[in-house]
Amino acid sequence: MTPAAPVVLLLLGLMGAHATLPAVPSLAELRTAAAMAAGLCKTRPTDLVFIVDSSRSVRPSEFEQVKVFLAKVIEGLDVGPNATRVGVVNYASRVKNEVSLKTYRTKAGLVKAVTKIEPLSTGTMTGLAIQFALNVAFSESEGARVKSPDISKVAIIVTDGRPQDNVKEVAQRARDAGIELFSIGVGRVDMNTLRQMASEPLDDHVDYVESYSVIEKLTKKFQEAFCVSDLCATGDHDCEQVCISTPGSFKCACKDGFTLLDDGRSCSACSGAATDVVFVIDGSKSVRPENFELVKKWINQIVDKLDVSEAKTHVGLVQYSSSVKQEFPLGRFNNKKDLKDAVKKMAYMERGTMTGQALRYLSDHSFNPSQGSRPGVAKVGIVFTDGRSQDYIGDAAKKAKENGLKMYAVGVGNAVEDELKEIASEPTGEHYFYTADFKTMTQIAKKLQINICKEEDPCECDSLVKFQKKVEEALQALTKKLESVSKRIAALESKIV
Q1: Residues 6+ apart with CB under 8 A from 17
Q2: Is the pLDDT of residue 23 over 60?
Q3: What's the pTM value of the predicted model, to 2 decimals?
């Protein structure tokens, strides 16, 4: 069950099938279970109606087991007028509204009411029961809230036999109304009827138990179905700085002094600054083709964080191995889509590792005006390598920084950290990154924050300092005058007395 489903109808059509419950929990189920255990999830605001089959085929002892199951599901809910409201419809050949959504506002009262429900012990009109739920149980007069994407509507229908009326059309009407239908069978059932009632995908919406004695094992499934994880608390988000929880989702924000970028995840300290950024990517044979694809994804992760446009950030790409190849110059692509598509098309060179040669190319060619570099614009080089350079990098690294380039160095696997530090700008701790595995490069993409701010105009700074001094001098003069006036007033007061 997806948390974003606008309306959910849990059809516990306890009618049987040979569907089996998965033996091994999925990753999503494990995360949900962990979130529940850690108290990191709560139930989504829901209008929940149990529609319980009490036909003559359901023995009194079996009906009691159904009520225990309902009570246990209720125990896992946030019951309240602004959280989850619960109703119960009892049916056989006729339909009886046992508990309205507006009746009980606490779990204790609700569970007590469930225990008092008596079976009707006649036929099995499941279609009639579904129609009653649509027309009456989920009506505003019975306590249902106005339809909203923030509120689910859930009905749990319990039946143990083949319906004596048609369910296909009414179930379709329920789904068309935004209702998600779950059907669960017990014992001898018509599997086709279960499928007719259930929503897609059927694997998620059709369940089976052998008898009423084991119906309680479904409790956990539905508790998890109602669980809405706090994705910020569980860490299942990709916000760079601040994560804000919303029902079943999250949104990103930034710390004071930072601006949220267009990707909705990344933050920039100086989003208004024009910047030329050139990636210098190691395409040597030690990288290997599958890892080179991860490198391209990593580049595009960083591109997502940049304000790519004609006026703001321009990006160029250079690949090197035994030689250096310019994949595309600065300014060729001025939107993220075209830029990322060009990165994806980069072909793997697969030769040596001449990092020094690549750094010289970066300084001499990549930031040349003939290659799209803009005068007066901040310039950033991001060098990636996975091994020791086969040539000397010291002079080239020094020249790049002397030319005013802000240099970031990123290493993976056999990259030499001393070389990375030599390439990186000061403070090196903020400009070089290393990870042992290509698969963890995502973490570097999150940490690497290109903060390029416009240099302050020295004249403006001098003017500001002069202005501040004048203000301070004026305040000091005013203070002296006030002190003088105060003394005069004191002298006048003493004369009057």
Answers
A1: 185, 189, 191, 194, 206, 208
A2: no
A3: 0.46
